[in-house]
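Fig. S4 source data, part A: sequence.
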Amino acid sequence: MAGRFTGLWPALAVALALIPAATPSARAEVRIKDIAQFEGVRENQLVGYGLVVGLNGTGDSLRNSPFTERSIEGMLERLGVGNLTDEQMRTQNTAAVMVTAMLPPFARRGSTIDVVVSSLGDASSLRGGTLIVTPLTGADGEVYAVSQGPIAVAGYAAQGANASIVEGVPTVARIENGATVENEIDFSINEMNSIRIALRTPDFTTADRVERVINDRLGGGATALDSGTIEVRPTDKNDIPGLLAEIESLRVQPDAIAKVVIDARSGTIVIGSQVRIAEVAVSQGGLTVIVKEEIEVSQPEPISIGNTVVVPQTEVTVEEQEAQFSILEGDVSLQRLVDGLNAIGVTASQTISILQAIKAAGALHADLEII
């Protein structure tokens, strides 16, 4: 039901009258694959420690990064070069790095994955470097991939005697297809007795709708276990991948809670379609303080005894806008209220303050999240 404004804020009432009332509309149907994932079918994080060589004097300083020096010594000993003293090792073309990657599901031996290389020491840039063979391990300590190759840096850094400029992050780089999978994760879909679908945003209403659409299409077998999990027991285990392909292409109408998200830094306000407010009176006033600073110099007369004195002159002016009340009656959508505030020129920071005050008054029927 559309509401109306009465009171001393006629401009807001006129603005709201010009905005069409929100009419209930069906939410768009989406594929199950866009709001959920199959349990067990996921990526795995990999991490490794390595060295980047070939830098043009932008690598780690060995005095400030002793782990880089130890790594170089260990690498050279494995290659047959040893007995180097600290005075003999003064290179600045090497940097210690952490290498991270995501192992996709069902990755097979010989396939390649992308890696991210991040500086660990005080190197100023990784541009032009090459990553030396680096094993990548999983959470269980097993090696699943090996990375090596020239790196690509998106950012750059330039420095002179009195000025410097940095664009992006030159100490972070990528290697496209820079790691080769050496070990597979054992996982067989055809051996599963049941398939579990995990919703990315748990919701009982959405879980119930997913259960119904699967049962209507497959003739039963789906059960919602909780707000985020739906279990499907296949009748034919010979074609589980085909069953998963059929399930993920089904369309369902997801539900969502009423929520308002505010980014106070940028003044961004995102409002859900289900947000409503109760009857509330709103008053918005403004206080403007203007401070003007002027510097005056008191100069003594010629051939006189005195000192030059700097005398600051400060002028402070306070302007206060007249605060007026406006009463909102009925079940009015919050979107119409915000549109009305915008129509009369209320700033984003003032709108955020009003929404927070309405929430504190208990009239905002939604979750208010500030990020």
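Fig. S4 source data, part B ends here. The mean pLDDT is 80.
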